[in-house]
Amino acid sequence: MTELFGVPAPALFGQLLLGLINGAFYAILSLGLAVIFGLLNIINFTHGAQYMMGAFTAWMLLNWAGLGYWWALLLAPLLVGITGILIERLLLARLAGLDHLYGLLLTFGLALVIQGIFRNEFGSTGLPYAIPPELRGGQNLGFMFLPNYRAWVVVVSLAVCLATWLVIEKTRLGSYLRAATENPTLVQAMGIDVPKMVTLTYGFGVALAAFAGVLAAPIYQVSPLMGADLIIVVFAVVVIGGMGSILGSIVTGFGLGVIEGLTKVFWPQASSTVIFVIMAIVLLLRPAGLFGRAS
Questions:
Q1: Domain spans of the chain?
Q2: Which CATH architecture has domain 3-285?
Q3: Which residues of 143-180 are buried (b: 16+ CB within 10 A; e: fewer)?
Q4: pLDDT tens digits along 254-278
Q5: Quick one: pLDDT band at residue 15, thresholds 50, 70, 90?
Q6: Which of 32, 64, 89, 162 is paired with 140 by a 20 to 30 Å CA distance?
Q7: Neighbours of 97 (CB within 10 A)
Q8: Is the pLDDT of residue 13 over 90?
Q9: In the prediction, which pLDDT does 5 show?
Q10: Is 275 exposed, middle or buried (0-12, 13-18, 19+ CB in 10 A)?
Q11: Alpha helices in the chain, H assignment, sequence order
């Protein structure tokens, strides 16, 4: 059996694949957080619960309405995004101009409420969600076996992240969004409805979380706690990349996923803490994050 750095090649590449998959979820979730923070200046602690809602929406569409995975990819982000719009209009909009702490406490409380509702309804045991028939099986690459669905998750996550970055950084809509974060009064004077833009931006960030939940449903058990287990790591990714940095969320998400995978190969005991160690080092050396701007 071929070895690389003293490790069997299948084990090494298998952990690299696992790291890329985790990195895909880190990237797309931290991207949603960065979009929301960049425009609303709200640290959205409900993001993990909204990721869980995306997975449960896919499960409910399949089991209650007979709509499979491909429909769920379209409908779950839309439905959960609409709940995000309602949350922003009814609750978060009332906190505009207040200290960030109020938004953090409100979204943290909302996350606990949402998780409690789903736990009471579905229990704590995970529910299975089947891989769509078109993506079952895998490819034998010689040095490792590559499951089709896991390759799909990495590719589609990267595509969504890059498309979001292009829209925000390279289009007129993105320039309006960025301008609204710097001088909303001036943007409003240009005839642009800033409150509506803020609401739709929050809905889009929530939809990204729900999209990630649908992607995760066939890999992990659909559980009320699946978001709570992930959101702390995602916040660490956002801090390392830079709060509000779109590119930082994408690069850091995928990069830290790979680092975490390699750590499981060469130092398994540190795999659960390596991201937080990196976060501490980055905060000491560059408090604004790797891609962030100093206030």
A1: 3-285
A2: Orthogonal Bundle (1.10)
A3: ebeebebbbbbbeebbebbeebbeebeeeeebeebeeb
A4: 999 989 888 888 888 888 889 999 9
A5: confident
A6: 162
A7: 7
A8: no
A9: 56
A10: buried
A11: 9-40, 47-65, 69-90, 100-122, 148-170, 172-182, 184-189, 194-216, 226-241, 246-266, 274-285
Q: φ, ψ for residue 138 (rounded to 5)?
A: -170, -175
List, in sequence order, every residue forming a beta bridge with 8; answer none if it has no partner.
3
pLDDT in tens, 147-197: 899 999 999 999 999 999 898 888 887 787 777 666 677 777 777 777 788
Measured CA distances, 30 to 48, 95, 212, 256 (Å): 10, 22, 11, 12
Contact between residue 46 and residue 220 where contact means Cβ atoms under 8 Å apart:
no
Q: At residue 54, does pLDDT exceed 90?
A: yes
Contacts of 61 (CB under 8 A, 6+ apart): 67, 68, 71, 72, 75, 76
Q: Name which of 207, 234, 210 is nearest 222 in CA terms.
A: 210
Distance in angstroms (rounded) separating the CA atoms of residues 105 and 102: 5
Give the residue-averaged pLDDT of 87-111. 86
Averaged pLDDT for residues 50-59: 96
The one-letter amino acid at 133: P
Query: Which residue in 205, 255, 217 sits closest to 24, CA to CA?
Result: 255
